[in-house]
Design a protein that fits this description.
Layout (H helix, E strand, L loop, with lengths): L1 H6 L3 H9 L2 H15 L1 H19 L4 H8 L2 H13 L7 H8 L4
Helix pairs in contact: 3-4, 3-6, 4-5, 4-6
């Protein structure tokens, strides 16, 4: 989705993403990740925010979908869960431990 938003974002694409509930699906998948694999969530949220930022210049539909699907609550939960990570773990150790791929 972030590639689409960076390279070919139009009103039609925003409408398509909205009608097909892509943001709702992303938030749902991220919710699962926050509950099971918080480190991967931290790597996945920035591209979603980039897509939301890029789409705002055309329409607020995707940002509204993010809000309506409890995206801000998801972000809060992800940040709180990241705070629970052991500070002495390196990023590579966490990636291996939690199964993230770059």
């Amino acid at each position: 989705m972030s590639t689409i938003c960076r390279k070919s974002l139009t009103q039609g694409i925003v409408d398509y993403l909205d009608v097909n509930q892509c943001i709702a699906s992303c938030v749902k998948n991220l919710r699962y990740m926050v509950d099971t694999n918080v480190i991967c969530t931290a790597d996945t949220i920035p591209p979603l925010f980039g897509a939301l930022k890029d789409s705002c210049s055309i329409s607020d539909k995707l940002l509204n979908a993010y809000r309506d699907n409890a995206g801000y609550t998801l972000l809060t939960d992800a940040i709180l869960n990241l705070e629970k990570c052991e500070p002495d773990e390196t990023a590579e150790t966490r990636r291996i431990k939690y199964g993230c791929l770059e």
